[in-house]
Structures are given as C-alpha cells and as structure tokens.
Amino acid sequence: MAHPAQLGLQNAASPIMEELIAFHDHALMIIFLISSLVLYTISLMLTTKLTHTSTMNAQEIEMIWTILPAIILVMIALPSLRILYMTDEFNKPYLTLKAIGHQWYWSYEYSDYEDLAFDSYIVPTYFLEPGEFRLLEVDNRTTLPMEADIRMLISSQDVLHSWAVPSLGIKADAIPGRLNQAMVASMRPGLFYGQCSEICGSNHSFMPIVLEFIYFQDFEVWASYLYIV
C-alpha cells in the first residue's frame, strides 16, 4: 500500500500492474527526453542571436520534425495497446467474484459457491486495533486464492462507484444496471487495500476495499468453514 511522501506507484502484486509500471517508466523516459530537447532549444534561442538561412527554410528539418513525433507516438501506442488487450483476457478463471457498490459499502458474492455472500463496511476509527489503518480497514475482508485468475463482475445498486485496488492494477466503474468485467490476480499472499474512486456522495471516502490473498488450500478451508457457520 502507499506510504507517506511516496512519489512513485505502489509495488506491483499482479502481472498486469508490473506491465503498467514498466509502461509508465517507458512513457516517462520519452517525455523526459522530449522535455530536455525542448528546453535546450529554448535556451539556445534565448542566449544566441545567430541565425542561418538554410535552417529557416529547409525541407529536411521539416520532414524530421513531422516524422519523428509520429515515430514517438507509435513507440508509445504499441505497448499501450498490448497492455490494453492483456487486461481484457479471460482464460478459464478459477473463481468468479461479484462486487456490488452501495451507499456506502460494498457487498460481495462468490458465484461459484452457494449462498456465500457478505457485506463489507468500514471499521470506525474508535474500533481500530493497534496497527490497523484508518479509513482503510473493513469488518469483512474479501478472501481470495493467490496465483489464480479471478473474474470480477462489478456493478452498483444506487449511484456510480468505482472499484479500485492500485497494487493489483485494477480500476473498474460500478454502474447501476450494468456489469463490468475485470481480471484480478496476485502473485503473493497478503493484504491489498483500495477505495472507491468515483465521487458517489457524502460518504464517498468511507468505502474501503480490502483483499486478502491466501494459499489455495487455506482458501478452501476458509470457504468450507463459512458453509458450516
């Protein structure tokens, strides 16, 4: 999760987020090079009065500053499209989880299990245990198996919401009357925090998301325990 004074992105916990971070660094380097070139050109124009007639009317330089930006755009567009198609790939998901946004909490349904559903509310500040995070903890964490493709079906019952977990590289709008689909996967166990990322009302800031990824065998034990209870 994020920490104070953090300037970069959160550490990646999924393959998609690793690709997004790599693309971010790739695009940022291109922007840095362009900005340096523009700054250098401006500084030359401000510090020298020399001109040359061949540079004021030359077809070669005009071709260069027309073709070069097109090449740069292609260098940015191709990796971007690759990641875009990767986020839409759904190859035999192990589990389907439905997240429904409400004012102002989330409810979850495990579609592959009968009657396995619960609501997830924020934990008030005065109920927090030592070491827990204010405005990020919930009473019922969403437990999922690690190293498995999980299909998310995201919708809303009242207003627009947005289900977002930055470290997993997922952000999908929850729209009333519509199901949005996304893929979630984590390569390591742990807790991953997110929040509603759409202004949805007065308590928009109080809709945290907590995903707990555990090992396969532990997930089956957890699911069977809920059946018994």
TrEMBL record:
Source superkingdom: Eukaryota
Record's Gene Ontology CC terms?
A: mitochondrial inner membrane
Q: Which reaction does it catalyse?
A: 4 Fe(II)-[cytochrome c] + O2 + 8 H(+)(in) = 4 Fe(III)-[cytochrome c] + 2 H2O + 4 H(+)(out)
Gene3D superfamilies reported for this sequence: 1.10.287.90, Cupredoxins - blue copper proteins
> What's one GO BP annotation on this UniProt entry?
ATP synthesis coupled electron transport
Q: Which residue windows are transmembrane per the record?
A: 21-43, 63-85
Q: Which residues form the signal peptide?
A: none
Q: Which CDD domains match?
A: CcO_II_C (cd13912)
Q: Which InterPro entries match?
A: CcO_II, CcO_II-like_C, CcO_II_C, Copper_CuA, Cupredoxin, Cyt_c_oxidase_su2, Cyt_c_oxidase_su2_TM_dom, Cyt_c_oxidase_su2_TM_sf
This entry's comment on the bound cofactor is: Binds a copper A center.
Q: Which GO terms describe its molecular function?
A: copper ion binding; cytochrome-c oxidase activity; oxidoreductase activity
What keywords were assigned to this record? Copper, Electron transport, Magnesium, Membrane, Metal-binding, Mitochondrion, Mitochondrion inner membrane, Respiratory chain, Translocase, Transmembrane, Transmembrane helix, Transport
What Pfam families has UniProt attached to this entry? Answer: COX2 (PF00116), COX2_TM (PF02790)
The record places domain Cytochrome oxidase subunit II transmembrane region profile at: 1-91
Cofactor dependence is on: Cu cation
Q: Does the keyword Translocase apply?
A: yes
Membrane topology recorded in Swiss-Prot or TrEMBL: Multi-pass membrane protein
Question: For the Cytochrome oxidase subunit II copper A binding domain, which residue ranges apply?
Answer: 92-225
Q: Where in the cell is it found?
A: Mitochondrion inner membrane
Q: What does this protein do?
A: Component of the cytochrome c oxidase, the last enzyme in the mitochondrial electron transport chain which drives oxidative phosphorylation. The respiratory chain contains 3 multisubunit complexes succinate dehydrogenase (complex II, CII), ubiquinol-cytochrome c oxidoreductase (cytochrome b-c1 complex, complex III, CIII) and cytochrome c oxidase (complex IV, CIV), that cooperate to transfer electrons derived from NADH and succinate to molecular oxygen, creating an electrochemical gradient over the inner membrane that drives transmembrane transport and the ATP synthase.
Family membership noted in the UniProt record: Belongs to the cytochrome c oxidase subunit 2 family.
Name the UniProt record assigns to this protein? Cytochrome c oxidase subunit 2
Q: Which organism is it from?
A: Chiropotes israelita
